[in-house]
Amino acid sequence: DDIPDSLYSIRKLKYLWLQDTVYCEEVQEGGYECSIDSDFGFTGTISTKIGNLDKLQQLLINNNPISGIIPTEIGLCENLALLHIHKTNIVGSAPIELCLLREKSLNSENDVGVFYADCRPNNKTQAPFFACDCCSDCCDHTTKVCIADD
Q: Which 8-state DSSP code applies to residue 97?
């Protein structure tokens, strides 16, 4: 399912945690086998309406097949201190508006902000899946390994 458009109208929303969606399959004897897999979960893109969430402090959408780019309107979320977009299908690069948030709450030097993205060389040999000059922690999209860059 896509990220519900109605979420972007919750003006007082501070925490949006959609990460690690669990996928379950029914197995014999009526039981279920479940796992976290980034091929299942929320799809679609992050709407430009993300800028409506000016109280947002945490956005965790990792481990979902969300795609597209990060809209520049995310820069309006000036209280954002925790951003996890790794293990998704988000491409492109971090917009300058997002990087400017590193001077605010998304600043890890104050032990507050953390920004994870798939910005390590993909499979150690290919270009990064997501270009980022301001991530605090970079992950390899293929191997799923994350390393702090700060």
A: H
